[in-house]
Amino acid sequence: MSSDPAVGGDLADRLARVAADVESAARAVGRRPEEITTIVVTKFHPAELVRDLYERGVRDVGENRHQEAQVKAAELSDLEGLRWHFVGQLQSKKARQARRYAAAVHSLDRSSVVDALSSDDGTLLDGFVQVNLTDDPSRGGVPVDDVESLVERVLSTPGLRLRGVMAVAPLDEPPRAAFARLRRVSDRVRSLAPEAQDISAGMSPDFAEAIAEGATHLRIGTAITGMRPGPR
Ligand SMILES: *Cc1c(COP(=O)(O)O)cnc(C)c1O
């Protein structure tokens, strides 16, 4: 894949375009682009794409399936400083294994997962409480009203460092309004945990709206990687 200059060239173009769009979206609302981390979501793509991204300066990548992430992280263990962000549903029984490669888990959505991620070996895993911004429980994330109790749970779990909140925009609502709600949830979380200032929000179609509502961590897939191959 990296041996095909056309593919690499397109990748460089898309990376540069997204970086420029992030920068202008930030400046438009008086924010500094440096305070925003772009995580390139590489799910379903081969490890080789992650290597290409790394060679172009990317240090934060995201995956949403444990099995796939584990295999890729092992294959790319030579890439120093590469951080794996786990952004998908995590089964409690896989949580402990995810700790080994992940720098951050963005999908803390129930106490069983939080408990399974606990560790007293001295390492710290960054965690985001995933908030469900819809009324549909199948969409993932903790209901808005239950955020505080899950936050308390994370704060009392050894080995976890609460970074903030995460959400995916609902399908049936303008994203800006949904991200504004997430921002208010973030304010509540910060009154419990002042250091948990981060907001993981914004994907390919809606990252500008997320930036306008304070997102600090964007999770961008297709706008950078191009179309995803089907799940393998
Ligand atoms: C796939 C995925 C993304 C990236 O989506 P794109 O629309 O390709 O940018 C972001 N967040 C989560 C949780 C995902 O599963």
TrEMBL record:
This is Pyridoxal phosphate homeostasis protein. InterPro entries: Ala_racemase_N (IPR001608), PLP-binding_barrel (IPR029066), PyrdxlP_homeostasis (IPR011078). Residues 38-229 form the Alanine racemase N-terminal domain. Its cofactor is pyridoxal 5'-phosphate. The modification N6-(pyridoxal phosphate)lysine is found at K43. Pfam families: Ala_racemase_N. Keywords: Pyridoxal phosphate. It comes from Frigoribacterium faeni.
